[in-house]
């Protein structure tokens, strides 16, 4: 029994500018990606916190980027206002974020799989004996988990957030949804928006779901998903595809 996605239509809910690599990986396995972005990334209107950070960058010991979006919404402004001090340590939450920083010419420390806040907190560079008394800024989207900052503060660091983008719900497309065999979701917001956008369409809750984290799986169950839910072993496109293959094997006997 071969493991592949041949003949399966897979709904991709990621923001459109972040979905291409995942779609390519799915196509390489014979699947057909159907793009339905449920999140749109928008710059925040108030950039005062980011501009203030530019003026105090020399006082910081470390900056942390939560996502590739945080990099892309921060650096065009940050690097026109100042130069990163050589002593400033840069941390990326996830492989894609580290790669985006590399494209900007910035080397960053990156946690191991599964590429989430818990993995970052396990890094040697972020232990209490290292960061106590250090000043840290975390660049992220509006809202989100507080675990990273809360834990770093408990370890003795001074931590501030700078929100550089917000997530909005796109309008529902005019085209009709065809048969969908599996759905991929990479955030709680993305799942909630999907359910809002396709409210009243029962198939959404009855289609096998592949998600990026256990937190999304818990939310999916709470919000009435009745189909099997598969959690990626690591928070990456490759992790999602591995779970899609597992789901295809279990549900469709691929």
Structure explained in plain terms:
The mean pLDDT is 93. Helices cover 37% and strands 20% of the residues. The strands form two sheets. Strands 3-8-7-4-5-6 form a six-stranded mixed beta sheet. The chain has eleven helices and eleven strands. Helix 7 (147-154) links the parallel strand 7 and strand 8. It has helices at 20-28, 48-55, 68-81, 95-103, 117-121, 128-131, 147-154, 188-197, 203-206, 214-222, 237-251, and strands at residues 9-12, 32-35, 40-43, 62-65, 89-92, 109-110, 135-141, 158-168, 182-185, 209-211, 229-231.
Helix residue percentage:
25-40%
- What is the count of helical runs? 11
For the residues shown, what is the average pLDDT? Answer: 93
Structural class: alpha/beta
Structurally, the number of domains stands at 2
Dominant shape: elongated
Cα-based radius of gyration, to the nearest Å: 19 Å
